[in-house]
Design brief:
The protein is of the alpha/beta class and 469 residues long. It contains 13 helices and 16 strands. It has helices at residues 22-32, 56-63, 82-89, 94-97, 119-127, 179-183, 199-208, 226-233, 245-248, 268-274, 343-357, 429-433, 441-458; strands at 8-14, 38-41, 48-53, 69-79, 106-113, 145-152, 166-175, 216-219, 237-242, 281-286, 300-305, 316-318, 338-340, 358-371, 386-395, 400-409. The longest helix is centred in the C-terminal third of the chain and has 18 residues, at 441-458. The two termini are 41 Å apart.
């Protein structure tokens, strides 16, 4: 490991969406690759994080996975006034001013947060750095060195200050993996359903699960396989199960407007073929999550899933309310129909499956719906063999949200007592979701105020409806 005094400071400039997932995603990647680091600042809301790492290779490795971060720069100066920032840049050490050498082509990028800046103003800001002894030639298309200048005008879009609160200047090192998000856009995807998961969230889940090349990954509520696409993108071998035969085989009604009929190859397998990921496709099975089809001794590296909440997708398992005798000629019980699958039972089965079929230190990542005014982190599902690593919220509407939970297997179950603990929380979620009048009085006003405040700060970070898969 490099000596600590040689470490450099890096600025992670983040995307203005999915704010609560930033820190968990970055920390999951750092832990997965065992990247040495020290946090300098990691604010929960501001669009940056400051971190110290021993080498540029570490910074590039981090960016090859992240989708919540836009880019990383080697931080040369940071101040609360432009004058102070300039003073720091005038006293840069020789190892940094060497980038100003004549043979280096360059460009300067200006980025402002929470304030629209015209091209004319950007040019003026660039010219304000004319005191830097840059001897190279400007090259806007393919420079050998790119300098980034950031201004932060706070989070309140209704009260933009005259001057920024923070100024940053540094050398660009790498962009993140966000370019892959457009590649997997649902707008152009071969096979989708009404509840197909957004590619950004799918890739965030894959990062939280620490999926890497050669890992075996399963989604027990696979739906149209959006999570499998993200897992395969990062090198995982993917498989899944779902109780809905029509969905798995691409037989359900088309989701796109003006499309009357599904194509013959419009299914999960077709998606992976379209993205040149078919070599990482194992298979998908019609199966009941309450009765896993996997051998007890089989181990997965990761489990990522979005169970149905009973809003846009029904919660079902194989079974019948009727008590019927089993014919003697059948070697095993026969279940002729489906029955309701309560959320409590669903999460209990999921965590028990993870405890039994995950490898040691493997991760399970899943969504759980929440009535916000009733939320208590101590009432989330637990398991003696699983440790909760992260817990992030995505707001759905004034009264509801869903939380993305990451749990890591810390030990093998030894006896029947090692079973999931399901508390009395969101298991009447569907009823409460459609009966918002139950949220009354001051509690409802507090939830509404918080919702509107976050929406005004973040702009587009609020989901409209909960989705499964």
């Amino acid at each position: 490991m490099a000596a600590r005094h040689t470490w450099k400071s890096y600025l992670l400039w983040c995307a203005n969406e999915h704010v609560s997932f930033r820190i968990p995603e970055v920390e999951a990647i750092l832990a997965m690759y065992k990247i040495p680091h020290t946090w300098i600042e990691k604010p929960a809301e501001n669009p940056w994080m400051l971190i110290s790492m021993p080498s540029e290779d570490c910074a590039v490795k981090l960016m090859k996975r992240s989708v919540t971060v836009r880019s990383i720069i080697e931080l040369w100066a940071r101040a609360t006034t432009k004058e102070h920032l300039d003073d720091q840049l005038k006293t840069l050490p020789t190892e940094l001013t060497s980038y100003f050498e004549k043979e280096n082509t360059f460009k300067v990028v200006v980025d402002t947060f929470n304030k629209v800046t015209s091209q004319e103003d950007k040019i003026k800001k660039i010219e304000s750095f004319s005191f830097l002894p840059i001897l190279g030639t400007a090259n806007l298309k393919n420079p050998s060195v790119t300098y980034h200048y950031y201004e932060f005008f706070g989070l309140d879009a209704g009260r933009i200050p005259e001057k920024p609160f923070d100024y940053f200047f540094g050398r660009w090192v790498s962009n993140s993996e966000r370019s892959a998000v457009e590649k997997y856009s649902l707008k152009t995807r071969h096979f989708i359903g009404n509840t197909s998961m957004d590619p950004k969230l799918s890739m965030i889940m894959a990062n939280l699960a620490q999926i890497d090349a050669g890992h075996i990954v399963v989604d027990p509520f696979v739906g149209t396989g959006s999570l499998l696409v993200a897992a395969a993108h990062f090198g995982g071998y993917v498989c899944g199960t779902d109780i809905d035969y029509l969905t798995l085989h691409g037989k359900m009604k088309p989701s796109r407007a003006h499309q009357k009929k599904r194509q013959p190859d419009e299914d999960i397998k077709g998606n992976l073929k379209a993205y040149n990921l078919f070599s990482r496709y194992l298979d998908v099975f019609v199966g009941d999550a309450s009765r896993p089809v996997w051998r007890p001794e089989f181990r997965f590296d990761s489990i990522i899933t979005d169970p149905p909440y009973g809003i846009r997708e029904s919660t079902e398992k194989v079974g019948s309310k009727k008590v019927a005798p089993v014919p003697e000629e059948l070697a095993s019980p026969h279940f002729p129909s489906k029955t309701q699958y309560g959320l409590g039972d669903m999460y209990k089965d999921l965590l028990n499956f993870a405890a039994n079929n995950l490898k040691l230190n493997g991760r399970v990542v899943f969504w759980i719906p929440i009535i916000r005014m009733e939320y208590d982190p101590d009432l989330l599902p637990e398991h003696p063999c699983l440790e909760r690593v992260s817990n992030s919220e995505q707001i759905l509407n004034l009264h509801s949200s869903r939380r993305l939970i990451t749990m890591q297997k810390t030990m093998e179950p030894k006896e029947a007592a090692d079973s999931a603990i399901i508390h009395d929380l969101q298991y009447t979620f569907r009823h409460k979701f459609f009966n918002t009048s139950e949220i009354k009085g001051r509690a409802r006003e507090d939830v509404q105020a918080e919702y509107l405040t976050k929406r005004s700060k973040r702009g587009n970070g609020v989901a409209k409806l909960p989705c499964h898969e």
